[in-house]
Amino acid sequence: MPSTTRALSLAAAGAPFAKVDLERRDLRDDDILIDIAFAGICHSDIHTGRDEWGAAHYPLTPGHEIAGTVAAVGAAVTRHKVGDRVGVGCLVDSCGECEPCKNGLEQFCTKPSVGTYNAQGYDGEWTAGGYARQVVVSERFVCAIPRGIELDEAAPLLCAGITTYSPLKRWGAGPGKKVAVVGIGGLGHMAVKLAVAMGADVTTISRSDAKSSDAIALGATRHVATSDGQALRDARGRFDLIVNTVSADLAMEDYLPLLRPLGVMVNVGLPSQPYAVHPGSLIGGDKVLAGSMIGGVPETQEMLDFCAAHGIGASVETLDATDAAAVDAAWDNVVAGKVRYRYVIDAATI
Ligand code: NAP
Ligand code: ZN
Predict the structure, then answer these.
(1) I need a surface site. Which of 1, 143, 183, 249 has the fewest CB within 10 A?
(2) What is the pTM of this model?
(3) In this structure, which ligand is nearest to the CA of 185?
(4) Ligand 2 mean position to 117 CA, how many Å?
(5) 84 lies in which domain range?
C-alpha cells in the first residue's frame, strides 16, 4: 500500500497553496523514504507554479531543495541507512545507461531524466516535490549531507548550490580570476560564497546598494549597483567570468562589455523571454555566452563535500507553514527580492 504524506499543493496557476494528503509510492527495492526536515523555495518553483514556463501540471507540489533523514529503505538499498542525513535535488530518475548518465550528467539523460516535481516518471505517475513531510526517491538520487552542515542550511545547496558550483568550476573560478555574480538571490548568494571559497576575486552586481554590506560580508571584494549606470560602465573589461542568476529579463548588451577578452558569461537565470545579443558583442573579444543546468549526482555530492570542507551553507530564513498562506506570501517576497537569501520551509509545520 502506498503511504500518504501531508503536502502543500497548488490546484492551478495563481491558486493559493492548500494542504493535502499526497500519495507516496510503496518502497521499491532501490527506494528511500525520507523524513523531510526542510525544503528550500527556489525561484524555479515559482516560475513553474505560476506557469511562467508553460507545461505546468496541476495539482502541483513543488520543491527540489530537500534535506532530511532516512526513515526507511528498500530491500536492495546500500548507499544510505535509516537515520542518515540526506538531500535530494532537482532529479529523481534517469535511464542510467546513456552517455550523459554514464558520465554523471544525469540532468541530460536522453530518455530523458525525471524532475523531482512536475515531471512524469517512467511509471507514468507525476512526481511531487519537497513541500511535504516525506518523499520517496531512488537511492541513486539521494546525496549524503556531510557533518558540519545543518539541514536547514543544506537544503538550498541541492539546487542553488549545485547550479552555481557547476559553472564556477567548469569555467575556472579560482585564484587570480575575477568573477562577477549578477543578482544576489538564492543562487546569487551561493555563487558568491562558492566563488570566494574557490579563491576567486568576487564582485556582486545588483539592482541597488541595498545588499551591498551583505555582499561584502559574504566575501565579495566590491559591489556594483546597476541603478548607477556609471558604476556599470566603470566595470567594463574587468571580469574573466560572469555568472548571471537574474530571474527576469536582462539586457545582455549591458553585461557582455564587462568581460575581458576570452571572458565567459554563463546564464543560470531562466526568464521566460529570449535574450537579445548582437553577434559582434561576442566576436569582439572572443567572448563566450554559455548556459548551465543544475548538475549531475556525482558533482552534487562533490559540491556538498566542498561546502562542508569550507564551512559553507546557505543563508536561510526559516518559514513556518502552519498557515499555508505563509508560503504564498513567501513566494511574493522572493519575487520582490526581499528574502535574505533563501526561504526554507520547516516541513514539520506542513
Ligand atoms: P531569486 O532568489 O529570486 O534571485 C534572483 C535575483 O535576481 C534577485 O535576488 C535579484 O537580485 C535579481 N532580480 C530579480 N528581478 C530582477 C529584475 N527585474 N531585474 C534585475 N534583477 C532582478 O531566484 P533564484 O532562486 O536565485 O533563481 C534565479 C533564477 O535561476 C531563476 O530564473 C530560476 O528559475 C533559475 N534557476 C536556474 C537553474 C538552472 O539549472 N540553470 C536552477 C535553479 C534556478 P538583486 O536584488 O541583487 O538585484
Ligand atoms: Zn531550483
Answers:
(1) 1
(2) 0.98
(3) 1
(4) 11
(5) 3-158+314-349
